[in-house]
Amino acid sequence: MSQGVAEPVSHFGPFGPAFDTAIEAQLAVDLETGAILDANGAAAHLLGYERGRLKSMQIFDLHPGQAPALIAFTQAVEARGTYWARTLSPRRADGTGARVETGGVLVRTPRRRRLLMTLCDLDARQRRDIDAAADTFMREGVAEWQRVDRAFRDIERENRLILRAVGEGIYGVNAEGKTTFVNPAAEQILGWTAEEMIGQDMHVMVHHHHPDGSHYAHEHCPIYAAFRDGAVHQVENEVFWHRSGKPVWVEYTSTPLRDRGVLIGAVVVFRDVTQKREANEQLRAALAEVDSLRERLELENAYLQEEIRAEGSHRGIIGRSEAIQKVLRQVELVAPTDATVLVTGESGTGKELIARAIHEASERHERPLIRVNCAAIPRELFESEFFGHVKGAFTGALRDRIGRFELADRGTLFLDEVGEIPLELQSKLLRVLQEGQFERVGEERTRQVDVRIIAATNRDLRGEVRAGRFREDLFYRLNVMPIESVPLRERREDIPLLAMHFLSASRKPADRSLQLSEGDMRRLSAYDWPGNVRELQNVIERGIILARNGRLTIDLPGGERRTAAPSAPVVPSPLETEEERRMRLRESILKALEAAGGKVSGPGGAAERLGLKPTTLASRMKAMGIEAPRLR
């Protein structure tokens, strides 16, 4: 600058009020000497010195140990004219450093250069920023609260619209049982207006009595229970009472209301189910009438339209008689065990069915049931049939053959007509029953098997033992669990069931439309059935073959007479037991044989004297162990 230009100020003091009253702290520094020429009030406050004390100090006194940073700051100001930095931290009077942002501006005068330093307190600025953010938040928060308030009002308005639109009745009660709100559907169902119900005891108004008219106490009301126990209660088949006194059948749910964890009441949602209940009652009445008609039709049609089922039948064992029920009970008892079973009874009574029922109910049911008809095996082939043979063991043994015992391993072996086994082979059978061991014919190797034995016979094995034709030890080995298969004539109530079963089991679809009349049933029940169930099956099959125009032709032999002794009948006592009846029948047969000289059939024979067929008498004699010299 030229010498002719007058200096605008000779020192900083003449800056006057603008310097003294500045908000930020300011220092005037001589760049040549580093002396602090002046300081404003804000600087004195920030640094903790009096203004006079600051004027007696140098700028380096305020920045001990920071000379390099202070010189770099001054050079930056001289080069740029103005500069800001946060690298300087002036020392306060109390010895602490001030966290500031230092700004510098170069002031040139004709005499020398001066530095005007502005000290911006960063802590104060941070506080101002926080206050500004809080102010902004408060101003924005009011607007947000107003927006939320409007949203809640909109939600409340929508809820009211929903409550008015739903078809189910809704009302609320407080913890005292007073009604707090009611929707229009509840008004329509109950007949009361909202103004009449709000503030009133809802239970007293609409829930005061049970359907039968008995009083409904408050303490038993599930609606009140909801805000006492805090649980949701769903109730069906109750009534609310209409304003007119008419009961309204309802289903309702009472849900507790909580405010900060405190139960304050309940809201009840209910629907009128009166029409639904009436429809259900009509449906139940109609079904009951249908059931009554069906039962009457079944009784009227008896055998013709009744679907015959064998009660408690096992694998074809059909019947309701006490004799069959006894057999089934015995099957249930013995099946879970491995005990040997001896099934006795006349031919055709279903002994094999009993054996199959035992096997199927046992733990061996997944393994086979092997049947051996002992009466059909030639004497010389018994051992091979039972135990098998090896190739070359005898003439005709062209290959190895597995016997029935091996086939039945871990299963069941059914020895049908076991009384026909030759006496000389019974010892070998006894061995395998006792030890589970045998040898194939022509082989020295001993084999082990696990077989359950079920034997059946129509002979009196005790009589055979006494006659020396059956080993006593084998008999006791077989007779662990005896089951008697009773003849059909002793369970006549099962004849209709069996007849219908055989008819429905016809292989041809066209035969399944055939029916048995009540007259047919009476004829079948009156017949004596010497061939038992097998004979009945044959009669039904023959009737199907001879059927004409949808009717079976029941062809019974022997004039369909029920057998009876020609002698003066002895009137049995109503309390006669089965054993007494059998003994009486046995005595009658013995007397007839004695009178006929032991002759069974032919003129003057016992059968003719008793009015029986010779085959029937022979079957009964076998079953009772009666022998006659001329029995063939």
Can you offer a commentary on this structure?
- The chain is of the alpha+beta class.
- It has five domains: 114 residues, PAS domain (Beta-Lactamase, 2-Layer Sandwich), CATH 3.30.450; 112 residues, PAS domain (Beta-Lactamase, 2-Layer Sandwich), CATH 3.30.450; 150 residues, P-loop containing nucleotide triphosphate hydrolases (Rossmann fold), CATH 3.40.50; 73 residues, Helicase, Ruva Protein, domain 3, CATH 1.10.8; 47 residues.
- It is 41% helix and 17% strand.
- It contains 24 helices and 19 strands.
- The strands form five sheets. A five-stranded antiparallel sheet has the order 2-1-5-4-3.
- It is elongated and about 175 Å long.
Give the SSE map.
Elements: H1 17-20, E1 25-30, E2 36-39, H2 41-47, H3 51-55, H4 59-62, H5 67-80, E3 82-85, E4 100-108, E5 113-121, H6 122-165, E6 169-174, E7 179-182, H7 184-190, H8 194-197, H9 202-206, H10 222-229, E8 233-241, E9 247-259, E10 262-272, H11 274-301, H12 322-334, E11 341-344, H13 351-360, E12 369-373, H14 382-387, E13 388-389, E14 401-402, H15 404-407, E15 412-416, H16 423-435, E16 437-439, E17 446-448, E18 452-457, H17 461-466, H18 472-478, E19 481-484, H19 495-504, H20 518-526, H21 532-545, H22 578-595, H23 606-610, H24 614-624
Parallel strand pairs: 11-18, 11-19, 12-15, 15-18
Antiparallel strand pairs: 1-2, 1-5, 3-4, 4-5, 6-7, 6-10, 8-9, 9-10, 13-14, 16-17
Helix pairs in contact: 19-21
